Amino acid sequence: MTGLTILKVQNCIGWSKSINGHKNKKMQEEKISLLDKSSWDKSEILDRMTHDDFYYGYLGKNCLSSSSIKKILHSPLAYQQSFEPIDEKSRTNLDVGWLFHLAILEPELYANQIVVDVKSRDTVKFKNAYEKNMGKSTRVFTKSEVELVQGMGMSFHNNSKAKSLLKGTKKEVPGIDVLFGIPFRAKADALGPDYIVDLKTTSNIDRFYWEAKTWRYDIQCFIYCEIFGISKDNFTFIAIDKRDNRVGMYKVSDKSYENAKYDCKDAVKRFKKYFIEKEEEIYDFTLEGFI
Predict the structure, then answer these.
(1) What is the per-residue pLDDT across 197-215, written as a single tens digit (0 to 9) for each?
(2) Are 100 and 12 in contact (CB under 8 A)?
(3) Quick one: DSSP state of residue 58?
(4) C-alpha to C-alpha distance for 250 and 234, rounded to whole angstroms
């Protein structure tokens, strides 16, 4: 690539190799119906869900997920707007989070990504590399972004508690099931015989409790536990601080889990009202209360 310094992302020694494929008893049902009324064999759709285009594209519109539930709880309009292109800042944060997941869970794919020797995505070098890479399965990152991920990755790798939880697990495992009469999709970062591990990055791990409340990680825990048939006591969030690479491990309390169940059920009712039965227009949605 003329005029560019292109490097290959390097693996950190000791990161485990990805293992694909998992089926539990809840996934043995023969058929599942999606929001577009199509009917699928579960075995077939689970195979298709390993492809990001299918998982985030087609299923993103024809299944609900923890992220869509959070949008619906905010407002029906927020859910509808979630299908619009995201802004550059959000895209950058999502890309870096995605790269970190690759570094820990799928190092063979992580090593294939492209890094441009610049600090900013606003540079001509980065933009040229980004344009030339469009349509490919790899993504383009700045050197500073990769260094950030490498620091977090080495911290994770050197933490025996975090590393031991991933030992023997299957990575990026898709799951699908019907909750409250609506199809839901999920993809477990790491799935063990009877437990799930989910990776998070944070800009301030000292405020992770409040961050988890804001982003409703309890809802993700509830949906994943239901889909994969896992006890919530066996669901662990591992968070890495992007500033200083500190590692934290967090469970979901009984109260938070029950709140998540209630709110998920309420969000499904709202989804049916505005998007299936269409009893009201989404712009008529109004918050009500006392002050």
Answers:
(1) 999 999 999 999 999 999 9
(2) no
(3) I
(4) 11
